[in-house]
Design goal:
The longest helix is centred in the first third of the chain and has 14 residues. The protein has a single domain, classed as Glutaredoxin, CATH 3.40.30.10. It has a four-stranded mixed beta sheet, covered by helices on one side. A hairpin with a 5-residue loop joins strand 3 and strand 4. By secondary structure, it is an alpha+beta fold. Helix content is about 35%, strand content about 20%.
Length: about 80
């Protein structure tokens, strides 16, 4: 079972820091992991996400751009595809 979220971030992004803190609180003791990817070194990712970061992506490819809530992250975790 793939329990890894991807978080697309930028450099010196205070919203990204807020998102990481929120996600860490939600994922604490759940068995889920977070893989952080910076968009700054990839032109395709930069074009896709530059105005939307931070963006969290579920294992099934569902995206949620900032602002997102702990409840929304939990909803992504509870998706039927994860069971």
């Amino acid at each position: 079972m793939n329990k890894i979220f991807i978080l697309y971030v930028g450099s010196r992004c205070h919203l990204c820091e807020q998102a990481k803190s929120l996600i860490a609180d939600v994922l604490n003791d759940t068995g889920w992991m977070l893989h952080e990817i910076s968009i700054t070194s990839n032109d395709l990712l930069y074009e896709k996400y530059r105005l939307r970061i931070p963006v969290i992506v579920s294992p099934q490819g569902e995206e949620k751009g900032w602002p997102f809530t702990a409840r929304q992250i939990k909803h992504l975790m509870a998706s039927k595809d994860h069971l």
